[in-house]
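Batch job 17 of 40 flagged for manual review because the log was empty.
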Amino acid sequence: MVLGKLKDEIERIGRRALEKGLIKILPRNPNILTVSSLLIAFPTPLIVLMHVYWAYITALVLLILASGFDMLDGLVARYWGRTSKLGAFLDSTLDRYVDFIALIDLWLIHDGGFLGTIFLLLALLGSLMTSYARARAEALGVRMLGVGLLEREERLLLILAILIIYIITQLGSIIFYGLLLLAVLTNVTAVERLLVVVKSLSGGP
């Protein structure tokens, strides 16, 4: 998938940036980056409520920064050998908040009426179930990395892409159909993971 390839390329760029000196200015504690990601994204719903062009751009920049910090926390943890169960828990938990905030941002920009709200709720449900399915499956010993059409990183990239296209075009339909696309893809991913777990735990071929 295009978004998957883009995610891999962004991760490669992040690793190269760390090796070329970025690591020197980042905190060695990856949990600081994890928490910073949420703090950066947190004000964006209030910003987009201003409904002016510069507010949308500001929200986009903040979400990109939040995504960058979210990517870097894992890279920093592995670079310094500071991976931990606490870090994994914080990362997974706070990521859900950032996901929620990013989706709410889209809806606040253009709610799309009743259908738009339904699409938002379905996208939120699909996002949560995708993450829950992975967490529960891995707790049962079923590996979920790379399983599913739209993993968390691709999902966030898609949200950012929708926001960028909206800023360029100023067409509310971009948000409307973007939420529809997210609603479909997130729930398809959740179902994919459900089927993989059922097959694995039932001893299927």
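Reviewer: the log was empty due to a logging misconfiguration, but the result itself is present. The radius of gyration is 17 Å. Unflagging and moving on to job 18.
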